[in-house]
Amino acid sequence: MSSASTPHPDPVGNALSDYLAGQTAAELTVHSNVTEDESLAVRYFFRTLWEMPELERTALDECRGRVLDLGAGAGCHTLELQQRGFTVKAVDASPGAVATMQQRGVLEVACHDLLHLPEPGDQPFDTILMMMNGLGLVGSLDGLEQFLMQARAQLAPNGQILATSSDISYLFEDEDGALVLNLNGPYYGEVEYRFSYQNREGAPFGWLFADPTIVQDYAEAAGYDVEFLAEDDQQQFLVRLTLRS
């Protein structure tokens, strides 16, 4: 990062707003503590159904009832579900993302942190949707445990969470394919990220890449049945967590 970088509280939101205003070549830079910096084209947040990965299209087909789209970004999944006749509430922690979704026609949208969602009142959700490695929004293993317990209050009886996650253990393999992990350190899937946009950077945040075993263990302990629905060739998977009655 350049020393000239200045604090930028909402780089994703600002990038989405610029894209919507016509800057279609806008790019975010993604910084993490496990990989080299990467560029992310902002247009990816505006993808259509047939530009979405198969895991996401499968998840949309598995949605039912009233849907809560967490980490909704520019609202591509919410808008597709609205077109299908679903009632959807889109939530994102980025004020700019929320404004973008409102401009794009998302009918019900709110700005909230994942772990501080308001009670749904008399309208619980049948489906919680978490795409783009969306389970990572919980930030850590402690966050995963906290979220799974809080989600119980958001879900209707027999409600479901549809989420994608990834196993990134391959990043820690040596030349022979053996895992090289610090067993006394934090879980290898707990990653620190930071976005920057136009040489201005956002605050660092935790992101969790939970492997299938972790997801199953934590979900079952929190009272969910676990079903793995699909996996792609990049070790990303789609899981359904169904709240036990």
Automatic annotation (TrEMBL):
Gene3D superfamilies: Vaccinia Virus protein VP39. This is Class I SAM-dependent methyltransferase. Pfam families: Methyltransf_25. Signal peptide: none annotated. InterPro entries: Methyltransf_25 (IPR041698), SAM-dependent_MTases_sf (IPR029063). GO terms for biological process: methylation. CDD domains: AdoMet_MTases (cd02440). Keywords: Methyltransferase, S-adenosyl-L-methionine, Transferase. One of its GO terms (molecular function) is methyltransferase activity.
